[in-house]
C-alpha cells in the first residue's frame, strides 16, 4: 500500500485486516470529532468506549488509535502527570508495531506532557527522537509539528532567540508546501509569544491576528477562543481597551460553542489568567482581579504545573498592587509550594534553571517583604540562602541539602572567618540588599543602587573590560561607579580583612570583581584576595587528599564540522607545566578524550585544561577528542562526577566562567566543577588572549608552588594579577577564582 511504501506505515492495512466492529469505529470517530471540537471530556468518554470495543474484537490497531485520542484529550485538559504516564505505556505498545504515524504523534503528545510536568530533559530527548522518526518515515507535516514543539520548549525555558529562529524556520517550510493550517497557527503563535516576552507588543498583536486567521476556518473552537482571549491580553498591554473588550466578547462567544464541563471551564480560566497577568502589569489591578475572580476551584483541579504557578503568581501580583503584603505573601508561598512539588528533584543543571525561572521571582519578592519589616539580618540571609542553595546546588550525594540552610548552620559556617568576610548580594524587585558575614556575625545593608540601573551598568562594565581596545578611562570610571554602589557602603565592615568571598546574584555575577576601581586609583585586586561562590551553604564531606596533577592540551579539535585550531601559547603553557611537575599525567592531542579525562580526574588533586571551550545557552563544554572527530566534555557530565579530591581546576580556555546572560547559563562549567566537589576553580568570563593567558598562568603557578603560598589559590592569583595589572583589564580580569565557602 501507499502508506507502507512512502511512510513505512502498516497501520491502515493491519486495521482493515483486523476484525471489524461498526460500533467501535463509530466511537473512535466520535472521539476524534469531540477532540476536534474541543469537547475533551466527551472525547475521553468516546475513546474509552472505543478502546473497550476494539479490545473485545481483538483489533489492536483500532485500540491503539483510540488510546491516542484519549491521550490527546488528556494533554489538552492539562492532565500532565496522567498524560506522561499513559504516553509512556502507549509508546511501548506502539513501538513494537509498524505504525509510524501513530508513534510519532504519541511521542509529540508525550513531549508536551513531559514539559507540562516540568520534565524538560526528557521532553528535549523525546522531541529530538521525533524529528529523526518523522524525517525517516517521510511525514513532513509531522516534522513541522515537531519543529513547532521544539520552539515551544525553547519558549518555556526562556530562550527567546532560539524560539523565534526555530519558529521562523518552520514557517518558511510551511509556506513551501500545502500543509494543514494548524501548523501555520502553531508557528505564528510561537512567534507571537517570543515577541510578547521581548516586549514587542505591536508585533505581537500582528502575529496573533495571523495565528487567528489560520485557526478561524477549522472549527477548532477551543483554540480559536483562547487565541482571541490572548489577543485581548496583548491589546490590554498596548492600552487598546476597546479592541481588548471586542476580542474578549468574541472569545466568550466562541467558548459558548464548546460543551459545558471542566474542560471548557479550564480553557476559559487559563485565558483569563493570561489576561489578568498582563492587565495587572499594564492596567488596573481591580480589572485584573475581576478577570481572575472565582477561578481557584477550577485551577485546583488542574494537573498543570505551569497554569497553577501562573495563577498564584498573578494573584500575588494583584495583591502587591493593592498593597496587601500578607495576602501577597500567602500566594507567593503557595506558588513556591506548587513549584517545589513539581520540581520534586533537581537532577540536572537544566532542572535548576527551570526551577529558578519558575520560582525565582516568588522567592525574591517574599524576601523583599521580609526585609521591609522588623527582622534579624541572619533570618533574612538564611531565607535567601535557602533559595540560593536550591538554584545553585546539584549533587545531593556530596553537599548539604536545602533544609540545612538555617541560621545555626550559617553562623557556624561563617563564624570561623577571622581574616575574611563574606558579602552576599541579592537583587530584589526594587532594591539590592547586601549581607556581610564573618566571625563578628551577620550585618545587613540596603544599598542605594536601583536594580535596573545597576544591571545596565554591569553590562557596560563587562563590555568595556572584555574589549581590548575600549577606553581605559571608561573602564576605570565605570569600575569606580560600581565600587561606590556595591562596596563603598561596606568599607568599614571590610577593614583589616585580607579575603573577600562574594556571592553575587543575577547580572552581578558578570562583574569582573578584580577590575573594580577603588577611590585611591587602585584595582580591587590590589587590596583583596577575591573568591566568588555560588551559595554559602554548599558544603562538602571530606575525602582523603590526593596528589596527582592532570594536564590536558587537546590541540586542534573539530566539533560539528567547525575547526577549533591549535593554540600555540596554550601548548607551551601545558608543556612547561608537565616539565615542572614530573609526577603529572599529561594528556596531549588525541589522547585528550572524555573517557580519559573522567578516569584521571577521579585521582587528581589539580587539573589544568589548555584548550577550547564552547559556551551554549544552556551550558558550557570543553572541546576534546572522540573516536571519530571532536567530542564535548559537558558541564552536565562534569557535575555528575565525584571530584571532592580535586583541590584546584584551572580552565585556561575561552568563556569557561560564564557569559553575559548568566541567568541562562545554568550548566556553566565553573558551577559544574564546584557542585562535583572541586575546592577552587579558576576560569575566564570572556575570550581571552592566548599569549597574555600563558604569561598570567606562569605567574600564578610560580606563586602557587612557592613555599610561602603553597595551597592558597586565591593568594597566588592575587600575586599573579599584581604583575599584570598595568595592562588593560581585558588581558587579566576575565579570569576569576571560584569556590565554596569551606
Q: What features would you describe in this structure?
A:
It is a single chain. By secondary structure, the chain is of the alpha/beta class. It has 4 domains: 1-138, Serine Threonine Protein Phosphatase 5, Tetratricopeptide repeat, CATH 1.25.40; 322-373; 383-532, no CATH class; 548-738, Rossmann fold (3-Layer(aba) Sandwich), CATH 3.40.50.1460. 57% of the residues lie in helices and 11% in strands. The chain contains 31 helices and 16 strands. The strands form 3 sheets. An 11-stranded mixed β-sheet has the order 3-2-1-4-5-16-15-14-10-6-9, with helices on both faces. A hairpin with a 2-residue loop joins strand 7 and strand 8. Helix 5 (60-76) runs antiparallel to helix 6 (80-95) and helix 13 runs antiparallel to helix 14. The longest helix is centred in the middle third of the chain and has 23 residues, at 349-371. Mean pLDDT is 86; it is low at 393-405 and 655-667.
Amino acid at each position: 500500500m501507499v502508506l507502507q511504501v512512502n511512510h513505512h506505515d502498516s497501520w491502515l492495512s493491519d486495521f482493515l485486516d483486523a476484525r471489524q466492529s461498526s460500533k467501535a469505529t463509530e466511537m473512535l470517530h466520535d472521539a476524534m470529532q469531540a477532540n476536534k471540537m474541543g469537547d475533551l471530556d466527551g472525547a475521553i468518554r468516546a475513546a474509552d468506549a472505543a478502546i473497550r470495543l476494539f479490545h473485545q474484537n481483538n483489533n489492536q490497531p483500532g485500540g491503539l488509535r483510540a488510546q491516542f485520542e484519549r491521550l490527546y484529550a488528556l494533554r489538552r485538559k492539562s492532565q500532565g502527570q496522567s498524560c506522561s504516564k499513559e504516553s509512556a505505556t502507549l509508546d511501548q505498545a506502539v513501538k513494537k508495531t509498524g505504525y509510524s504515524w501513530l508513534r510519532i504523534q504519541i511521542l509529540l503528545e508525550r513531549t508536551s506532557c513531559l514539559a507540562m510536568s516540568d520534565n524538560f530533559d526528557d521532553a528535549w530527548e523525546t522531541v529530538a527522537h521525533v524529528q529523526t522518526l518523522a524525517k525517516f518515515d517521510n511525514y513532513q507535516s509531522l516534522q513541522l509539528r515537531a519543529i513547532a514543539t521544539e520552539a515551544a520548549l525553547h519558549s518555556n525555558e526562556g530562550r527567546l532567540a532560539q524560539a523565534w529562529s526555530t519558529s521562523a524556520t518552520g514557517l518558511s517550510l510551511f509556506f513551501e508546501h500545502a500543509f494543514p493550517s494548524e501548523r501555520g497557527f502553531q508557528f505564528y503563535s510561537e512567534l507571537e509569544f517570543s515577541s510578547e516576552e521581548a516586549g514587542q507588543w505591536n508585533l505581537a498583536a500582528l502575529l496573533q491576528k495571523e495565528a487567528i486567521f489560520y485557526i478561524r476556518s477549522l472549527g477548532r473552537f477551543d483554540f480559536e477562543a483562547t487565541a482571541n482571549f490572548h489577543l485581548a491580553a496583548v491589546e490590554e498591554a498596548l492600552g487598546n481597551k476597546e479592541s481588548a473588550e471586542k476580542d474578549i466578547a468574541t472569545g466568550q462567544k466562541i467558548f459558548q460553542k464548546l460543551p459545558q464541563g471542566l474542560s471548557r471551564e479550564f480553557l476559559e480560566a487559563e485565558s483569563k489568567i493570561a489576561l489578568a497577568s498582563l492587565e495587572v502589569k499594564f492596567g488596573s489591578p481591580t480589572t485584573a482581579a475581576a478577570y481572575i475572580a472565582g477561578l481557584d476551584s477550577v485551577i485546583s483541579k488542574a494537573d498543570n504545573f505551569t497554569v497553577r504557578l501562573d495563577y498564584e503568581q498573578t494573584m500575588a501580583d494583584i495583591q502587591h498592587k493593592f498593597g496587601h503584603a500578607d495576602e501577597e505573601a500567602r500566594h507567593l508561598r503557595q506558588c513556591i509550594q506548587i513549584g517545589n512539588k513539581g520540581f520534586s528533584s533537581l537532577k540536572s543543571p537544566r532542572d535548576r534553571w527551570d526551577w529558578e525561572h519558575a520560582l525565582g521571582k516568588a522567592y525574591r519578592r517574599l524576601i523583599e517583604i521580609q526585609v521591609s519589616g522588623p527582622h534579624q539580618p541572619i533570618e533574612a540571609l538564611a531565607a535567601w540562602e535557602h533559595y540560593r542553595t536550591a538554584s545553585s546546588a546539584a549533587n545531593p550525594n556530596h553537599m548539604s541539602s536545602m533544609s540545612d540552610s538555617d541560621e545555626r548552620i550559617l553562623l557556624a559556617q561563617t563564624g570561623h572567618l577571622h581574616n575574611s568576610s563574606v558579602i552576599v548580594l541579592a537583587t530584589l524587585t526594587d532594591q539590592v540588599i547586601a549581607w556581610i558575614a564573618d566571625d563578628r556575625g551577620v550585618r545587613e545593608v540596603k544599598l542605594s543602587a536601583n536594580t535596573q540601573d545597576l544591571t545596565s551598568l554591569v553590562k557596560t562594565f563587562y563590555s568595556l573590560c572584555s574589549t581590548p581596545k575600549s577606553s581605559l578611562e571608561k573602564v576605570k570610571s565605570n569600575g569606580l561607579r560600581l565600587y561606590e554602589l556595591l562596596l563603598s557602603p561596606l568599607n568599614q565592615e571590610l577593614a583589616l580583612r585580607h579575603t573577600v568571598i562574594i556571592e553575587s546574584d543575577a547580572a552581578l555575577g558578570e562583574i569582573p570583581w578584580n577590575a573594580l576601581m577603588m577611590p585611591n586609583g587602585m584595582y580591587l585586586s590590589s587590596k583583596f584576595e577575591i573568591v566568588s561562590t555560588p551559595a554559602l551553604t554548599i558544603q562538602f564531606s571530606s575525602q582523603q587528599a590526593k596528589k596527582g596533577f592532570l594536564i590536558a592540551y587537546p590541540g586542534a579539535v573539530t566539533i560539528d564540522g567547525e575547526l577549533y585550531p591549535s593554540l600555540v601559547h596554550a601548548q607551551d603553557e601545558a608543556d612547561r607545566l608537565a616539565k615542572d611537575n614530573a609526577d603529572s599525567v599529561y594528556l596531549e592531542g588525541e589522547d585528550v578524550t572524555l573517557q580519559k579525562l573522567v578516569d584521571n580526574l577521579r585521582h587528581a588533586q589539580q587539573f589544568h585544561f589548555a584548550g577550547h571551550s564552547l559556551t551554549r545557552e544552556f551550558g558550557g563544554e570543553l572541546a576534546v577528542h572522540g573516536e571519530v572527530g571532536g567530542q564535548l566534555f559537558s558541564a552536565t557530565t562534569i557535575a555528575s562526577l565525584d571530584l571532592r579530591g580535586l583541590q584546584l581546576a584551572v580552565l585556561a580556555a575561552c568563556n569557561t566562567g560564564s557569559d553575559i546572560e548568566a541567568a541562562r547559563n545554568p550548566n556553566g562549567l565553573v558551577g559544574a566543577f564546584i557542585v562535583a566537589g572541586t575546592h577552587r576553580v579558576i576560569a575566564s568570563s570572556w575570550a581571552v588572549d592566548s599569549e597574555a593567558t600563558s604569561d598570567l598562568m606562569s605567574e600564578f603557578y610560580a606563586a602557587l608552588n612557592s613555599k610561602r603560598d603553597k595551597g592558597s589559590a586565591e593568594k597566588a592569583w592575587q600575586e599573579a594579577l599584581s604583575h599584570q595589572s598595568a595592562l588593560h583589564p581585558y588581558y587579566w580580569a576575565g579570569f576569576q577564582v571560584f569556590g565554596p565557602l569551606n
